[in-house]
C-alpha cells in the first residue's frame, strides 16, 4: 500500500468521524443529506460482498467493517434517533434515489469486466459512489448556513477521492499490468463533482469568510 | 492475478 492510498483511506475515515462527531455529540444532522448517506450505505453493502469470502488483510477487513457499520448507523441516527432526526432538513433534501440508482444499475449491467453477480454489484457500487454525493451537494447549495463540520465533512470526502487518483497514478507506474478503466473513469467523475465545492471552500478559507455556495 | 489488484482497495 502506498502513501496516497493510505492517506486517502485516513481522509475517508476522518470524514466519517467528523460526521459521527456532529451527529453523536452535537445531536444534529442539519445540512446533512440522508439521501447521500443511504446511497453510501448501499455502495458499501454492494461493494463489500467479498468481506467473508476473500481475505485480503486485517486492515482491509477492519476498514470495510468500519465503513459498513458507520454508514448504516448514520442512516439510523438521521432516520430514527429522537433528537437527531428533528434537525434533518427533510423538505430541502428532495433528491430522488432512483434517479441515481437505476442508471447506475443499468450501466453496471452493460459495462462490467465480468458478467457475474458479484462483479456487477461491485461495478454498480463504483458507479453509484461516483454520484452519491450529488444529493449532498444540492442540499449544500440550498442551505444558506453551512456549518463548519458539514463543510469539513464534504471537503474530507473530496480530498479522499483526489488522493485515490494519486494512488492510481502511483500504482500505474510501480505495478505491472495495472489498467482499470471502470475504476479510473468513475473515480475521476466522482472527483470532478467536487471541483465546484473545492473552489468555494478555498475561497472562503482564503478570505476567512463563512462557506456559502451560490444558488 | 487471482483477484484483480484493484479489489484490494476500499
Automatic annotation (TrEMBL), chain A:
Membrane topology qualifier: Multi-pass membrane protein
Subcellular location: Endoplasmic reticulum membrane
InterPro entries noted in UniProt: ER_ret_rcpt
Signal peptide range: 1-31
GO cellular component: endoplasmic reticulum membrane
A GO BP entry: vesicle-mediated transport
A GO molecular-function descriptor: ER retention sequence binding
Superkingdom classification of source: Eukaryota
Any Pfam family hit: ER_lumen_recept
Alphabetized UniProt keyword annotations: Endoplasmic reticulum, ER-Golgi transport, Membrane, Protein transport, Receptor, Signal, Transmembrane, Transmembrane helix, Transport
TM region positions: 55-78, 98-115, 121-140, 152-170, 182-202
Protein's name according to its UniProt entry: ER lumen protein-retaining receptor
Amino acid at each position: 500500500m502506498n502513501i496516497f492510498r493510505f492517506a486517502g483511506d485516513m481522509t475517508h475515515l476522518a470524514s466519517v468521524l467528523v460526521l459521527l462527531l456532529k451527529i453523536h455529540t452535537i445531536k444534529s444532522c442539519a445540512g446533512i443529506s440522508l439521501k447521500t448517506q443511504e446511497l453510501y450505505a448501499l455502495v458499501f453493502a454492494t461493494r463489500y460482498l467479498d468481506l467473508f469470502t476473500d481475505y485480503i488483510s486485517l486492515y482491509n477487513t477492519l476498514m470495510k467493517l468500519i465503513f459498513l457499520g458507520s454508514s448504516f448507523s448514520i442512516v439510523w441516527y438521521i432516520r430514527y434517533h429522537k433528537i437527531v432526526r428533528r434537525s434533518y432538513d427533510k423538505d430541502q433534501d428532495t433528491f430522488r434515489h432512483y434517479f441515481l440508482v437505476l442508471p447506475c444499475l443499468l450501466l453496471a449491467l452493460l459495462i462490467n469486466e465480468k458478467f457475474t453477480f458479484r462483479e456487477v454489484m461491485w461495478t454498480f457500487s463504483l458507479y453509484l459512489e461516483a454520484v452519491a454525493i450529488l444529493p449532498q451537494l444540492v442540499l449544500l447549495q440550498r442551505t444558506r448556513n453551512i456549518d463548519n463540520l458539514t463543510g469539513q465533512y464534504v471537503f474530507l470526502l473530496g480530498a479522499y477521492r483526489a488522493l485515490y487518483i494519486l494512488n492510481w497514478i502511483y500504482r500505474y507506474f510501480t505495478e505491472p499490468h495495472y489498467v482499470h478503466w471502470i475504476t479510473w473513469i468513475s473515480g475521476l467523475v466522482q472527483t470532478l463533482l467536487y471541483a465546484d465545492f473545492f473552489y468555494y471552500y478555498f475561497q472562503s478559507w482564503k478570505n476567512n469568510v463563512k462557506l456559502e455556495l451560490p444558488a | 492475478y487471482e483477484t484483480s489488484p484493484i479489489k484490494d482497495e476500499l
